[in-house]
C-alpha cells in the first residue's frame, strides 16, 4: 500500500493552483494497466482484498505496492500469469504499459517497475471438455474420449 503523502504534479501554469495525487491513485492506475496486458490472469491480492471481492467490491490497486522517495517512484507488481505465456515478454509488457499509463495520466517519471510472478494458472476447461451429465461414469476410456 502506498504512503499517504500526496504527490504534487508539476504544472507550467501554476496561476490556478497546484494538483496533488494520492499515491493510492497511482496504484490503481498501475493495477488496471497490468490487468490489461495479455497473459496476465489476475493480480495477487491480500486476504483483505479477497474478502472485499466476496462482497462485490473490486480492488483495482491490489497486487501493486508503490514506494515514493523524493522524486522517485518504485512500483512492485505482483501477478499471476496464464500458463504457456512467455514470462519475460509478459513482464516487459507489464512494465511498458504501466510506465505508459502513469506517464500519460500524471506526467510523472517512474524509477523502477519490478514484476513479481506469484504463480501460473492453467487453462480453464474449454467447451469441448465439459462433463456429459448423461454419461458421468463411462464404461471405458474410449467412450470417454468420444465425447
TrEMBL record:
Protein origin, superkingdom: Bacteria
Pfam families: Asp23 (PF03780)
InterPro entries the UniProt entry points to: Asp23
Membership in a protein family: Belongs to the asp23 family.
Protein name, entry field: Asp23/Gls24 family envelope stress response protein
Organism this protein belongs to: Periweissella beninensis
Amino acid at each position: 500500500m502506498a504512503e499517504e503523502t500526496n504527490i504534487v504534479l508539476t504544472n507550467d501554469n501554476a496561476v490556478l493552483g497546484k494538483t496533488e495525487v494520492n499515491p493510492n491513485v497511482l496504484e490503481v492506475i498501475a493495477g488496471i494497466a497490468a490487468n490489461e496486458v495479455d497473459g496476465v490472469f489476475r493480480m495477487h491480492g491480500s486476504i483483505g482484498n479477497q474478502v472485499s471481492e466476496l462482497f462485490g467490491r473490486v480492488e483495482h490497486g491490489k497486487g501493486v505496492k508503490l514506494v515514493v522517495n523524493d522524486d522517485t517512484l518504485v512500483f512492485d507488481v505482483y501477478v499471476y500469469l496464464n500458463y504457456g505465456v512467455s514470462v519475460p515478454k509478459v513482464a516487459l509488457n507489464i512494465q511498458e504499459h504501466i510506465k505508459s499509463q502513469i506517464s500519460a495520466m500524471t506526467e510523472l517519471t517512474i524509477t523502477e517497475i519490478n514484476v513479481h510472478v506469484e504463480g501460473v494458472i492453467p487453462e480453464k476447461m474449454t467447451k469441448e471438455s465439459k462433463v456429459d451429465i448423461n454419461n458421468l461414469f463411462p464404461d471405458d476410456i474410449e467412450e470417454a474420449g468420444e465425447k
